[in-house]
Amino acid sequence: MNDIKKWLRCLRTCISGDVRRADEMTCSTCRYQGWVDDARRVGLVLLGQGIKKGYMRYRFSECGHERELYREAVKNNAFICNQCNVTAWDSPATVYLFRMEYDGFEWLKLGYSKNPMERRKKYGLPNETNFELLFERRFSDGHQVFEFEQLKLTELAEFRIPAVDMVRYHASGARECLKIEAMESVLESLSRAG
């Protein structure tokens, strides 16, 4: 009965039987429309299939340049236009604070990224790690957000957890971890302009 409900999500699948795997319950038309929607959401126009597997050809709405991009990069808004010479340092970014917990140990993680929720996935944390986004502040470019993060890490130095203690949890990002007991002070500091 559950399979029938999954199939009903996409009536085209029921009609065409256009499914490559049993766990893939959408047809090629709906799958392609999802890619079109992902592109539009991040300022791109999907032009068609790319040369490499998993890649598609896109046009940047703002500048008109075209580039082949990995579909997951588009979905996660993790790309730039190489022809405009715009780097991550020139693009808007967000400073963030996560509250994290694993196996009874809690800590705060300060960082910056274009997409904090995607960045969190790259820390290499144990799968069972619980997290909560406590703070976000957007900056117009990577230079500003980096300066703000460094200023706050200096200001909050007394609350930092040594990286050597955090590498058991973080494959990356272990240097910007703060004691959970300092949460109120950290949030107050982050709320003040830098």
Describe this structure in words.
Strand 1 and strand 2 form a beta hairpin. The chain has helices at residues 2-8, 11-16, 28-41, 71-75, 116-121, 142-155, 163-166, 183-191, and strands at residues 44-49, 55-60, 66-70, 93-102, 105-113, 130-139, 177-179. It is built from eight helices and seven strands, in the order H-H-H-E-E-E-H-E-E-H-E-H-H-E-H. The chain has 194 residues and is an alpha+beta fold. The model has no long low-confidence stretch (mean pLDDT 85). It is elongated. It starts with a helix and ends with a helix. 34% of the residues lie in helices and 25% in strands.
The largest beta-sheet arranges its strands as 6-4-5-7
Radius of gyration from the CA trace?
21 Å
The backbone outline, from C-alpha atoms, is elongated
Label the structural class: alpha+beta
Overall pLDDT confidence: 85
Low-confidence stretches: none
Number-wise, the strands total 7
Termini gap: 56 Å
List the helices and strands in order: HHHEEEHEEHEHHEH
Helix content: 25-40%
Count of DSSP H/I helices: 8
